[in-house]
Amino acid sequence: MGRRERSEMVNMSILMMMMMMSSTLMTMVDSSRLVQRASDDSEILRRHLLANGLGVTPPMGWNSWNHFSCNINETVIKETADALVTTGLSKLGYNYVNIDDCWAELSRDKKGKLVPKKSTFPSGIKALADYVHSKGLKLGIYSDAGYLTCSKTMPGSLGYEEKDAKTFAEWGIDYLKYDNCNTDGTRPTVRYPVMTRALMKSGRPIFHSLCEWGDMHPALWGAPLGNSWRTTNDINDSWLSMISIADMNEIYAAHARPGGWNDPDMLEVGNGGMTKDEYIVHFSIWAISKAPLLLGCDIRNMTKETMEIVANKEVIALNQDPHGVQAKKARMEGDIQVWAGPLSGYRVALLLLNRGPKRSDITAFWDDIEIPPNSIVEARDLWKLVDGFQSRMLMNNGLALTPQMGWNSWNHFQCNINETLIKQTADAMVSSGLSARGYKYINIDDCWGELKRDAQGNMVAKASTFPSGMKALSDYVHSKGLKLGIYSDAGTFTCSQTMPGSLGHEEQDAKTFASWGIDYLKYDNCFNTGTSPKERYPKMSKALMNSGRSIFFSLCEWGQDDPATWAGDIGNSWRTTGDIQDNWKSMTTIADQNDRWASYARPGSWNDPDMLEVGNGGMTREEYRSHFSIWALAKAPLLIGCDLRSMDKVTFELLSNKDVIAVNQDKLGIQGKKVKKDGDLEVWAGPLSKKRVAVILWNRGSLPANITAGWEDIGLHSSAIVNARDLWAHSTHSGVKKQLSALVEPHACKMYTLTRRKA
Ligand SMILES: *[C@@H]1O[C@H](CO)[C@@H](O)[C@H](O)[C@H]1NC(C)=O
Ligand SMILES: *[C@@H]1O[C@H](CO)[C@@H](O)[C@H](O)[C@H]1NC(C)=O
Ligand SMILES: *[C@@H]1O[C@H](CO)[C@@H](O)[C@H](O)[C@H]1NC(C)=O
Ligand SMILES: *[C@@H]1O[C@H](CO)[C@@H](O)[C@H](O)[C@H]1NC(C)=O
Ligand SMILES: *[C@@H]1O[C@H](CO)[C@@H](O)[C@H](O)[C@H]1NC(C)=O
């Protein structure tokens, strides 16, 4: 694999050198003054034939082929034009409605003119162009530099170039895709200029899209002839096709510029043959490659997911950047690639691409992407917002800069709660000293409310257990310097079925919570009527933002719809797993499940592997130490789940470890993860602020074992010398080189913070 990748690189650099030689040649011919010889290749290189002022940025729109092939008619074209407007896509720049092959009768009329197919385009193309123009859009059409088009169901324009260009202009056509089937065997450099000249003489500016399939390297000669030129064969709706076409097109990057673009074929996004991530790769590469953005799906029936991809304004802006420079591969290592290209305003577009089957860290160095070495940049992630299309930026409540810390009633008490318990817990939080270590939230879970809302539809605190009401309770909790959290459900009932959920009452309930002085909402997923969480959770997010109070939003969707990929814009944390149980197997399984989503955590929004079980009795001291250490390193919420009023000394020692808490609350906010696994022996690590590194050596087996973290495993340079602070033994090893090793007892862990020593 590695070797193949390298040989590919070698081939490519040879190819690029060849191209550079040819383009030098082209410049030379360009500046010489040869006498014109008709149909000589050199003629096309001599003059810029195509000065239509079009294609200043890559064309955007739609084309019928990828989804419909020959199954087209005037209804589908009109409905597509309608849909481009109603979806808002035309506003984003998608303006061309392009008819591909199969729109005409096989025979020309008596005067030799092309005739729209009577059975499918009965009103004719002129009427269709009028319709499309009335929508503020442009109409494109298709022909072929041969005797027949590729479908062989209609004539090509070879020998009829002037006549056909005039016909297109008469009809009000704005774009011509000119294909390469059934030719007379002459070179494209002979056949294509004839149509270019014909279009220029037609009296209407018509975008000229050369579809020569890249056979004769049109990037080298297409610029004077066309506004874009295909660099490759037809795309098909698969990852393999898309990614190989992206590679082929990249070779010609240097030849793209405003007015003339490389064309790696139309988009397949929305046609169903690739995953969402793959389509995001497809759209991203096309955008930064300054490729035409011609949608190829059924616009009348797009999924929300497709819409989210192709309507990403910021990605479109890269494609339409006035600088007009095509991005290229800046670095390749196996399946890992860095693509980059300059943008206007001293900005750089950067794509980190993982083509392999496994998650992977990718680094782009300033050298690779031509940023001066000491530059400090602001990096904007353009896809972070994908799923937040409708809900983007909803949740900017300024909370959760570090993971939330506090207590929740469920793990120990389930439904056996009341206001006395909550108050006593608040008291214990303060008197134990835990609040001074950062534990601030006192969170009431399920079962706090009456089953029925009041006459105004408001939720009501349960009279038998919370007789003083929630406002009085929050006043009490606040008086202790703490915050009060509450619980509801994105369904018709909460999970206990003893109280109503907030589905359909989001605004009202959020206002109620705000009026009570609530600081935190855990929002569960029971009795959810089967609607997508991506519809139900943003509603509450919005309602909380409208409530007039800053309320932490904790999504408890159990990880079912991969909330890490979409909840970041609507919540401060999201559960990545089902409920934890107070045993080793549950805790370790959940730790692994949560680890998969590490890269999505960041200040303001965190992965949540559920609340702590430390102190509830189902695990040993060392197991609880592992539980707490891994949760801290993984930037998980530290929500205590035991009875604080009667916590023992061991529990307090675990929960109150300042150094471990400091790892969790580190302001860099990067989730540590499993970096090495050797059977039951694992190394978990993650970066901290001040260039420090947090490391856990974790023995998940049943025998004592030595575990080693090599510097390469944990992101340290091989020559680094560190001081290693053992966070549980409260001791420091100075001057540690190359690796850190320790003997670790079964189900136990060692946890360290490594600080680099100045050389
Ligand atoms: C027009 O084409 C669409 C898409 O192929 C098809 O669903 C529809 O039945 C066609 N309509 C007519 C009137 O032929
Ligand atoms: C799609 O393209 C890939 C790569 O060129 C090729 O391997 C595959 O056979 C094609 N699939 C179809 C259905 O044409
Ligand atoms: C719309 O798309 C859905 C799937 O995305 C499909 O099941 C349905 O048949 C399509 N409807 C039409 C009219 O094409
Ligand atoms: C409140 O809840 C606690 C914990 O379940 C329980 O021990 C106590 O008896 C309850 N108090 C009242 C007054 O119900
Ligand atoms: C751990 O390493 C030490 C030092 O190399 C060695 O003496 C000891 O036997 C090892 N223990 C285990 C359980 O492998």
Automatic annotation (TrEMBL):
Residue span, Alpha galactosidase C-terminal domain: 333-384, 678-754
Gene3D superfamilies in the cross-refs: Aldolase class I, Golgi alpha-mannosidase II
Broadest EC class assigned to this enzyme: hydrolase
Domain of life: Eukaryota
Signal peptide extent: 1-31
Statement: the UniProt record of this protein carries the keyword Mitochondrion: no
UniProt-listed Enzyme Commission number(s): 3.2.1.22
Pfam families: Melibiase_2, Melibiase_C
Catalytically driven reaction(s): Hydrolysis of terminal, non-reducing alpha-D-galactose residues in alpha-D-galactosides, including galactose oligosaccharides, galactomannans and galactolipids
Keyword terms of this UniProt record: Disulfide bond, Glycosidase, Hydrolase, Signal
UniProt similarity note: Belongs to the glycosyl hydrolase 27 family.
Entry protein name: Alpha-galactosidase
Organism field: Brassica napus
